[in-house]
Amino acid sequence: MPRRDDITSILLIGSGPIVIGQACEFDYSGTQACQVLREEGYRVILANSNPATIMTDPEFADATYIEPLRLDVLTRIIQRERPDALLPTMGGQTALNLAMELVEAGVLEEYGVELIGADAAAIATAEDRATFKDAMQEIGLGVPPSGVAHSLDEALGVVADIGLPVVVRPAYILGGRGTGIASTGDGFRRVASAGIDASPIGEILIERSIAGWKEYELEVMRDRADNCVVVCSIENVDPMGIHTGDSITVAPAQTLTDVEYQAMRDAAFACLRRVGVETGGSNVQFAVDPETGEQVIIEMNPRVSRSSALASKATGFPIAKIAARLAVGYTLDEIPNDITEMTPAAFEPTIDYVVTKVPRWAFEKFPGTTGVLNTSMQSVGEVMAIGRTFPESLQKAMRSLENGRLGLNADPAEATLDGLDDDALLAAAAVGTPERILQIEALLRRGVTIRRIHEATRVDPWFLDQILSISEERMHLEAVAARSEGIRGLTRSDWRRAKRLGFSDAQVAYLFGVGNGEARAAREAVGVLPTFKTVDTCGAEFAAETPYHYSAWEDEDEVRPSDRPKVMILGSGPNRIGQGLEFDYCCVHASYALRDAGFETIMVNCNPETVSTDYDTSDRLYFEPLTIEDVTNIIDAEQPVGIIVAFGGQTPLKLAGDLPEGLVVGTSPGSIDLAEDREQWSALCAEIGIQQPPGGTAYDLAAARAIVDGIGFPVLVRPSYVLGGRAMQIVYDDAQLVLAMDELSEFGSLGIEGGLSSERPVLIDRFLEDATEVDVDAVRDHTGEVVIGAVMEHVEEAGVHSGDSACVIPPPNLSDEVVGVIEGHTRRIAEALDVRGLVNVQFAVKSSDGATEVYVIEANPRASRTVPFVAKATGVPLAKVAARVMLGATLAELRTEGLLVERVVGDHVSVKEAVLPFDRFPGADPVLGPEMRSTGEVMGIDLTTGLAFTKSQIAAGGSLPESGTVFLSLADRDKEVGLEAARGFESLGLEIVATSGTARHLRANGVSVRETVAKIGEEGIDAVELIASGAVQLLVNSPRGRGPRADGEHIRGAAAAAGIPLLTTVSAALAAARGLADWHRYPLAVRTLQEYHRGVTGTPEEAGQS
User: In whole angstroms, what is the distance from residue 401 CA to residue 397 CA?
Assistant: First the structure.
């Protein structure tokens, strides 16, 4: 069928900020959809709130709205743009839910907007648990016995019929939020109540638990002509009971018989047809009883999903691109396969390798969490590895995680399990945790039988047998190591077998007690070298035209020669807190800019969720671990003229010193070390006359105490060479100092991360209380010219990690004189470090007795997480400019080319706000501090700071109340600023309740306090009870330092559990009060990023309400 000509403009809704359960895979899908639809000649309108995405770059859509994803805002965009169609299947659960809200509100009907990709009936059938169950039974597909409830009483009635244990699944949710397994009556009441609260429509499905069954997914596509294909089958290593996003998964499915697979395939197609997905991709999940082979269908997602990204990268089949074309009328047989250029999309992919995905968690960031995996997703990222065998891909994935492990075994970290006897280790492995796969390997190595492990863990015996082959190979290597000739005793056959089972040189070196370089030399001496294979979608039946490679240990190499100068870009690896989508954005921009400049670009990364690992982002893609061994292998194969390590965060920077001399482009590794080395950095700052907070470097507690004796408490304690404020703390007394130093020892939570981050010393600085923190991003070229990207003022005071703080461009409270000093300091630091490319400098501005002092906190000569935000706020593509500068271009030349443009002249204000995952970790204290804990970010843009801040809060999910009650509980030092915030809330008609000390201060200064809230344990309604009753619409609670659990932590936990907006700094409360005042004063306006980049001037009234 030809493309549709009856529509000319299409609205896409993005997925918003990165949250647990919905990560950057939707930037990949949204970017592909925007590209395809524009290629087809449609006008593309995009709504998304996340500035760190490629899709929100102004060139990817005709009209880009970086606005909160909320019904009223989307309605305003539709009123303004009048799109013909809405494509809701590229923005995850967020977009689907918003599409349904628009349908139910009558907005789409009122403005004549058609849903394409999936209509409202299909979405409702798939997402409404009761409707889906009925639909599947209607076509004869098995489902677990279940019932639907909308209240706790209804839920108790259902469970009385089907019996315990049960799984509770809320409707219209993402990442398994609110799901849970209940085995007792009390547990069921708790899980059912949480599920009803989590569902946007207050509905839960209660089904008999099939925990322990095998779990599978099929990624399927359908077109208007009813052509259906399975793109990929995926099998979970973990049994049912653990969310698929938290499970190790393998593609293609390994343990299904052909008969079972064909039955599952037919069921998936029948599901698509009954649900009514006419066009596009869907994910269908099944469970299989390992004893009987019985299959039941669990759920389906009528949209591009997290598994779609994995399936696309695993097969080379671009699901999002094809789904976008199907949505506008094409059929699968009309769409060519990009990789082969010979076959249509109607050909089901065939792969002759094994793909393994392993999640990455961040439990160390959230003290108080159990680390136990369940039906609610908790991982923050994932890695993918490709190998010719399952053991090879599993071990490659394990070393891709960057958590201190060299593989599945044979590294120093394996000793952590030595203290457990077999029974204790087996009991630990029976519980789903991130360590389970490592515990299983240790049990197999000890000789515990496969049957016994299977009975305890319900992991399929086939996977256990494959893991046993890794254990047996390790034991063989140990036997060779015991002989006198050492590593030279390994034959070519020994090396090839070890490599084909995924062993890294570092693992072999560990077993033989030699250095990594010696192991590599021994391997190369017997002629064992890597080869690179191509992902071709068709099992080598047709030639692949796209260079998308993975390593293997075979005889034939498929890397094609090239005469163009090559630049290798090292990606950022798995998403984690502190190193997320922003760094992938920078890597992608580097690739785009250098391709345009005539370089052949080579991307190396292991994250399947990202735009950087799309096969058409760079000229060549290597899906490989970011270790020195794997990267060196690619260097040997490609012979690049330069390697970019400064854009992928800490991951590639840690490799810089081991890469071949002269290949690292941009700022030298020596300058990067200078900025990290405390003594050298302090000497440099003193030399150029820039103040620093006093401090020093400590390797142990005695040295730390000596520093504190000289500078006094409070102090900021942090390790060097980390991102995201990892293990950073503000310390107020000696007891806290002892705890902080202990945490940084090898037995602390940082130790697992290994490498430089735990070997480098601890940095101790005087903490500047009540200072304003400021960030600057800049670019310097080899002539010494510096361009300041932006000066950003943080909303939260110094002490809150910059990644968790809201920040504002332009700075609203800094004088021109102070901004001038900060920009001058930045230029001098860039000169002193001989920066070639990006540099981020952080300052603290402290005012006292009428004088203002500017202190430099740190400088990082690399990409920072604020680079995408700065680019969207100012219109200057900083990452592209920096990439060109790193390869020798001057800023003057880039101005002439038109790449480096002047900053936008306009009156708009941009606010970046962090998005925090405390709803997933109810046991953690949701207070902000020096260690970063946010998973993503959003951006608010408008013509006043208040409007932009309020938009950022709405976009982050913490919508500020326009009526109701504000609860204030403030530390003594915050009460003066808190008074100003309280007056602001009162003037807006909000009522105030407060704890006793705060209430006294407010009343003494003329603020009406409706009620004084009792302390926990005292008579009267206490704070937790008040919050739980629904009587509070906003909580402001500012703690001081880290200490034992007190009322404040209970109060903050109650707010997080109730989903009430929570502000843990008084400066954020003041910003909220001012923001709400502007929100009341001006009507809602939306404008495109393209308009802001052309310049919008005046007040909201003067600029006109759009």
Answer: 7
The C-alpha atoms of residue 163 and residue 207 are separated, in whole angstroms, by 9
- Residue 307 is predicted with a pLDDT of 86
**Greatest Cα-to-Cα distance within the chain, rounded to the nearest angstrom:** 85
Question: Are β-strands 204-208 and 180-182 bridged in parallel, bridged antiparallel, or unpaired?
Answer: unpaired
**Residue 238 near residue 247 (C-beta atoms within 8 A):** yes
Predicted local confidence at residue 1099, as pLDDT:
80
The DSSP letter of residue 211 is T
- Cα dist from 336 to 225, 340, 538, 617, whole Å: 17, 8, 13, 18
Burial class (CB in 10 A: 0-12, 13-18, 19+), 419: exposed
Contact 416, 382 (CB under 8 A): no
List of E strands, 924-1033: 936-942, 965-970, 991-995, 1011-1013
Burial 666-689 (b: 16+ CB within 10 A, else e): bbbbebbbbbbbbeebeebbeeee
Q: Beta partners for 86? A: 11, 115
* CA–CA distance, 880 with 886 (Å, rounded to integer): 10
- 936 contacts 379 by C-beta, under 8 angstroms: no
Torsions phi, psi for 385 (to 5 deg): -135, 150
Strand partners, 672: none
Strand arrangement of the beta sheet that strand 114-115 belongs to: 63-66, 43-48, 9-13, 85-87, 114-115
- How far apart are alpha carbons 938 and 269 in whole angstroms? 37
Quick count: other Cβ atoms within 10 Å of Cβ 1083? Answer: 10
pLDDT at 722: 55
Q: What are phi and psi of 860, to 5 degrees?
A: -125, 105
Pairing of strands 909-915, 936-942: antiparallel
Instruction: Measure the CA–CA gap between 1083 and 260, rounded to whole angstroms.
Output: 58
Q: What is the 3-state secondary structure (H, E, C) of 309-332?
A: HHHHHHHCCCHHHHHHHHHCCCCH
| Nearest by Cα to 1070 from 965, 994, 970 | 970
| Contact between residue 338 and residue 546 where contact means Cβ atoms under 8 Å apart | yes
729 sits in which H/E element: strand 729-731
Q: Report yes or no: 1089 and 56 within 8 Å, Cβ to Cβ.
A: yes
Provide the pLDDT for residue 756.
Answer: 30
Place of tokens 């299904």: 256
Which residues of the chain have a pLDDT value below 70?
Answer: 1, 174-176, 340, 539-542, 720-727, 745-760, 920, 922-923, 1017-1018, 1040-1048, 1103-1106
Residue from 899, 903, 888 nearest 593 by CA: 899
Phi-psi bin for 724: left (phi > 0), alpha (psi -120 to 50), beta? Answer: left
Q: How far apart are CA 646 and CA 589, in angstroms?
A: 13
CA R_g for the chain: 28
Q: What is the pLDDT of residues 649-680, one digit of tens each?
A: 989 998 998 999 899 999 998 898 888 777 88
SS (H, E, C) 117-182: CCCHHHHHHHHCHHHHHHHHHHCCCCCCCEEEECCHHHHHHHHHHHCCCEEEEECCCCCCCCCEEE
Return the residue matching tokens 């707010």.
1055
How many residues are present in the chain?
1106
Q: How many CB atoms lie within 10 A of CB 121?
A: 13
Is residue 170 within 8 Å of 185, Cβ to Cβ? no
CA nearest to 607, candidates 318, 946, 381, 355: 381
The confidence score (pLDDT) of residue 749 equals: 41
Cα 355 from chain centre: 21
pLDDT score recorded for residue 343: 81
Q: Which of 221, 325, 347, 219 is nearest to 273 (CA)?
A: 221
**What are the CA-CA distances from residue 558 to residues 612, 633, 806 (Å)?**
21, 14, 48
Q: For 593-612, write each residue's pLDDT tens digit.
A: 999 999 999 999 999 999 99
